[in-house]
Amino acid sequence: MAAAEVINMRTEPEVKEQLRVAAELSKVSLSKFVLDAASARADEVLADLRSTALPEEFFDEFFAAINEPAPEALAALTERQRPYRRR
């Protein structure tokens, strides 16, 4: 599948040269080098948001808390009519 989207960016000449040299040494195009690096960083950021690490001493307390019934005020919020529709 051919790429269909374009990303434009501005940079300092020194940074562009650094990336160009690194791409050349990696035997890939500058675009591929930058896109691969940005994609890898995006994966890291998204993985951090998808997981939560807890110290062992807090895990049992946290697990117990999320398995308790919701407080009455919270339950009322989750049962109320939404002002919007999901698609």
From TrEMBL:
Transmembrane segments: none annotated. It comes from the Bacteria. Keywords: DNA-binding, Repressor, Toxin-antitoxin system, Transcription, Transcription regulation. This is DUF1778 domain-containing protein. Pfam families: TacA1. Belongs to the TacA antitoxin family. The lineage of its organism: Bacteria, Bacillati, Actinomycetota, Actinomycetes, Geodermatophilales. Gene3D superfamilies: Single helix bin.
